[in-house]
Structure formats: structure tokens, C-alpha cells
Amino acid sequence: MGAYIIRRIFGMLLVLLAVSFIVYLIFIVIPGGDPAQRIAGKVATPGNIRAIRHSLGLDQNFIFQWWHMLTLLFTAKLKSYANQTNVVDQIKQGLPITFSLSIGAAIIWMGFGILVGLISAVKAGRLSDRVITALALIGISLPVAWLGLVLRYFFAGEQGTLAWFPDGGYVALTQNPVQWFYHLLLPWFTLAVLFIGFYGRVLRSNILDTINEDFVRTAKAKGLTTRRILVKHVLRASLIPIVTLFGLDFASVLGGGAIITETVYQIHGVGWYAAQSIGSQDLPPLMGVTLFGAMFIVVFTLLVDLAYAWLDPRIRLT
Questions:
Q1: Residue 164 is assigned to a structural domain of this protein
Q2: What's the CA gap between 42 and 65, in Å, rounded?
Q3: Which listed site, 5, 224, 283, 293, has its alpha carbon 20 to 30 Å from 36?
Q4: pLDDT reported for residue 156
Q5: pLDDT tens across 16-56, in order?
Q6: Among 3, 4, 19, which residue's Cα sits nearest to residue 297?
Q7: Cβ contact 294:16 at 8 Å
């Protein structure tokens, strides 16, 4: 187990290096990707641009530029080209907000996804199964931006039709737990809807396949109740693909995948910071947010592999 974890950590470092190199390469070679030209402005002289490039180290070898930016990032000294704010500090400020949004949405989509999958599998072929399938497909098909705007229009703010919820914004959990929950309920639901339908459909298919396995027949032959077989044996084995999906989806949402939801509801988390950086083509924040997201994805992938061995004793990590 120890050797396996060491190999995975080494692989994680290689992935982060590769991701950072690709991101840097893309934003340097794209048209208009020279940060010095954007900082200097439209009426800058060639001398101004050269001076800015020299001060940023952009007149050095490409590999040196990339490594220099990585060094500044991991020593928490990297600053935005647009406003000279510290990238790591900005990510730290947005992290609790994105954590709050991601964890709440994950609880909703995981809980309702398992519930939808169980009901659909138990009622397979019946009218209730067809209705749940139709609702799941609708949820999967709804664009997050559109759903967020519709929910804001009808349910948020003084201008909303029902005005049940505040119109965007964020209140810290430590400041007011009730308002924290109140402000995040609509964003949680908006972010979770897509995953609920997808997880429900995947789990339904897994349960129906697992029911026909030999170990389930053995459990039935032992005289175990249907409920015990379904919960203790069938559901546990069927959750393995769901754990994979959850680990990757939660990591991607936490690492900036909630960018649309945060933008729609004006929640200033990591996703919102990434959106602002994309709009200004500000490379240092984009590098920081991308590596932040990649780190969570590779870490959660390792945790998913470790969870496999717990869910299915037949799986051993070597």
C-alpha cells in the first residue's frame, strides 16, 4: 500500500507539471497572448513593450519563463498581470466559498442520485420508472447558466416572482449559519440538478446488472430479506462506479468547475476568479486555478482507488 501511494504521488507531480506546461504554452502562443502587449495598452511603443517583457522575464527562454512562473506560484509570490494581486492569496480567499458551494451541491446530488437510482431500479419497467427517467433526462439536458438565470428570475431578490431567496451573494458560515444556508440553497440546487439525473441513471443500470450476480443468488439462497440483500450487497457493489464519478466530479467542481454557477449568482469563489481571469486573459491566475483544479482531481482519483478496496474486498491495491 505504501509503495502504491508513493508511486501515485510521483505520478501526480508529473501530471501537474504537464498540465502547467500545456496551459502556459497555450496562452503564450495564442494570438494576442503576449501579456506585455496587453499590459502596455493599445498606444504603447515597442520600447515600452520590451521594458515590460524584461521586467516580467518574458524575454527569457520559454522553458525558463514556465519554470519561473511555477516557482513563483509554489512560493506564493506569483502576482496577476492585470492588477498585481497575489494569485495564491486570491485563491485562498475564494476557497472557503467554493468549498461551501461544492460540498452542499455534492451532498444534494449524491443523496438524491442514490435515491433516484434505487427507486428506478426497484420499480424498473413501471410507470414511476418512466417518469423518473424522463425527469432525469430533463435534468441532464438543462444548461446550468439557463437554469440559474430562471431560478433567479422566479425565486430570488425583490424583483423575483416569488422572492423566496436572496438574489446572489454569499454570507460566511462563521458569520451567520442561517444566512449562509439561505444564500447557497439556490446555487446548490442549480449545480446539483445535472448530476442527480446522471447519477440516478448510472446507479439504476448498475443495480439491475448486479442483481443477477452469483453472490446475490447466494444471499437469496441463505434466506436473507430482500431489503438486506438490496442495501448490504447489491447497493454496495453498485456504488463502485458512482464513487469514481463522484470523486472526479467533486474534484472538478471544487477546482473551478462551478465557474458558471458562481458567475450567475455572483458568488466570488475560485470559479468566479477564474472567469474574471479568462475575460482579461490574465495568465498567472489561470495557471494557479488550473493547477489548483488538477491537484484536486489527481488527489481525489487516489482517494477513489483507495475507496474501491473498502467497497469491494476483491479489489486489492498493489
A1: yes
A2: 24
A3: 293
A4: 75
A5: 888 888 877 777 666 555 666 666 666 666 777 777 677 66
A6: 19
A7: yes
**Cβ-Cβ contacts under 8 Å for 314 (sequence gap 6 or more):** none
Amino acid at the residue 130: R
Number of structural domains, the chain?
Answer: 2
Residue 251 contacts residue 293 (beta carbons within 8 Å):
yes
3-state SS, residue 289: helix
The domain boundary, picked from 74, 102, 128, lies at 74
Number of Cβ within a 10 Å radius of residue 1? 10
Are 196 and 268 in the same domain?
yes
CA dihedral 295, 299, 301, 305 (to 10 degrees): 170
Helix locations, 82-171, DSSP H: 87-122, 127-141, 144-155
Residue 97 and residue 53 in one domain: no
Last residue of a domain, one of 22, 44, 74: 74
Q: pLDDT, tens digit, for every residue of 225-262?
A: 777 777 777 777 787 778 778 877 887 787 666 788 88
Phi, psi (rounded to 5 degrees) for 107? -60, -40
Q: Cα(79)–Cα(90) distance, rounded to whole angstroms? A: 10
| Positive or negative torsion for Cα 51, 53, 54, 56 | positive
Q: Tell me the three cell numbers of residue 116.
A: 433516484
How many whole angstroms separate alpha carbon 275 and alpha carbon 268? 10
pTM of the model: 0.76
Residue 38 has a pLDDT of 64
